[in-house]
Specification:
20 helices; alpha/beta; glycosyltransferase activity; 7-stranded parallel beta sheet; globular; about 500 residues
Length: about 500
């Protein structure tokens, strides 16, 4: 796919390369797209320093081995993560390892302490860094960019639609005087009508003591521009509005997951899979094309046992085939008990259950998959878009409710499951918010033979085709990656 870029990369010596420093937030949903970004930049001729920590590097072992075997110019920099020094358990180096959201402030402060060792590392590098691309949560990287006199671009893992909504919330203090959690809020300056309740807005999530850090994160004035894992053809109106309102350049370089074209690369993304990929693919091969629904809620959502049981009973009642990825954290034994009481036996001919981490892209792109029940995190949403499959939207927190509006109202490639209550990250879900009947009804609507469902499937397929074209040679995102490398390299030469 990046053949011209790869040829350029092979012909460049180290001193001619634009050197990007990538600093992801240590949470799977933030790190995985940045591994894809590293690969794309390297394939297009850049040098990349990918900042990580020992525990996170071991999780990425598959990707690291793949990058080394492919001869990509990516340096994996493993910095000591000061977990214990900041009141975290030893080895707690990723957001999904925190036992309580009350430790999030400690976690973010430990991340900020990486500034000093990172600066020391960069001082020794040749060529010197040309640009830092950091997760928006790493506000402290702005000081490093200033010290080296180089641009800092931010990456927040959102699409353009949600980035614009978040900016308006912050810039206009949209939530400040809203007392009623269920009052519908209008978004001034948004190019199409958008209404959300306060609790469904990104930024409504609160953690004790995080106010100062949040304030620093919101000072987006310190970034030169924004890198987005999306493509112009998907949401041009919102990307252009975001550029106009913020006055910042937006680089759309996605869908970045499409850089993984072979099975091994797809399987190597993220954590180690809980099920053998070959076993999973064999099962899918035995199913009719477009008949299976993939059910997965991302890496940070730990659904309450009673809700998982209700979801399972809905899947069973639908009589339709499914692959179900179950994550229940420390409550998993209760779910395991229920599965063993007969559910797994009853659905064995049409249901595949994966406990823990799954090779999501590999599954989504299989011809047997006809729908995707998702929590609407952007990584999952864009992966569903690339796969060309319609979605059942089941948002939980953060910007997921905004993404739901994009999928259902704008793209018209999704069916709402009808979530009644927000489940905040780190808070235990107390009751069932989606009934088995709602699950069954959504599946029926998605896989229906009727005209509306057929139109939705056609639209989903069309967006899948547009997504692939964007990253192919000459496509909008392909060209943007080359321009990004060129522009950051030129700026570095000018300032140097």
């Amino acid at each position: 796919m990046a053949s011209a870029g790869q040829a350029l990369a092979n012909n460049l010596n180290a001193s001619e390369r634009t050197h990007f420093v990538l600093v992801p937030l240590m949470a799977q949903g933030h790190t995985i797209p940045m591994t894809d970004m590293a690969r794309l930049l390297a394939e297009h001729g850049a040098q990349v320093s990918f900042i990580t920590t020992p525990v996170n590097a071991s999780r990425m072992e598959g990707f690291i081995n793949h990058a080394v075997a492919a001869g990509l110019t990516i340096q994996f920099v493993k910095l000591h993560f000061p977990a214990v020094e900041f009141g975290l358990p030893d080895g707690c180096e990723n957001a999904d390892m925190m036992q309580s959201k009350d430790l999030f402030k400690n976690f973010m402060e430990a991340c900020a302490a990486l500034g000093e060792p990172l600066t020391a590392y960069l001082c020794q590098q040749h060529p010197t860094p040309s640009c830092i691309i950091s997760d928006v949560a790493h506000w402290w990287t702005a000081d490093i960019a200033t010290e080296f006199g180089i641009p800092r671009l931010t990456f927040n893992g959102f699409c353009g639609f949600a980035s614009l909504a978040r900016y308006i919330i912050v810039h206009d203090n949209l939530l400040e005087h809203v007392e009623d959690e269920n009052e519908l809020i209008n978004f001034p300056g948004f190019p199409t009508p958008l209404q959300l309740t306060k609790e469904r807005c990104p930024g409504s999530f609160s953690v004790n003591g995080l106010e100062q850090i949040r304030k620093k994160i919101n000072e987006e004035i310190k970034s030169t521009g924004v890198v987005i894992n999306s493509f112009r053809e998907l949401e041009a109106l919102y990307i252009e509005s975001f550029e106009q309102i913020t006055g910042k350049k937006v680089w759309t370089v996605g869908p970045m997951c499409l850089c993984n074209q072979d099975i091994n690369a797809m399987a190597a993304r993220g954590n180690k899979a809980s099920m053998d990929e070959a076993q999973c693919l064999r099962w899918l091969d035995s199913m009719k094309p477009g008949s299976v629904t993939f059910v997965s809620f991302g890496s940070l959502v730990c659904t309450a046992p009673q809700q998982l049981v209700e979801l399972g009973l809905g899947l069973e009642a639908s009589k339709k085939p499914f692959v179900w990825v179950i994550k229940a954290g420390d409550k998993f034994p209760q779910v395991e008990e229920w599965l063993a009481e007969g559910f797994e036996e009853r659905v064995k001919d049409r249901g595949l259950i994966i406990r823990g981490w799954a090779p999501q892209v590999l599954i989504l792109w299989h011809k047997a998959i006809g729908g995707f029940m998702t929590h609407c995190g952007w990584n999952s949403t864009i992966e569903g878009i690339c796969a060309g499959v319609p979605m059942i939207t089941w948002p939980h927190f953060a910007e997921q409710f905004v993404n739901e509006r994009l999928v259902v109202d704008v793209l018209k490639t999704g069916v709402e499951i009808g979530v009644k209550a927000v489940t905040q990250w780190g808070q235990e879900q107390k009751e069932v918010t989606v009934t088995r009947d709602a699950v069954e009804a959504a599946l029926s609507k998605l896989l229906d033979e009727g005209e509306a469902a057929e139109e939705m499937r056609m639209r989903a397929k069309e967006f899948g085709v547009k997504a692939r074209k964007a990253l192919q040679e000459g496509g909008s995102s392909y060209n943007n990656i080359n321009l990004l490398i060129q522009e950051m390299g030129n700026q570095a030469k000018t300032s140097g």
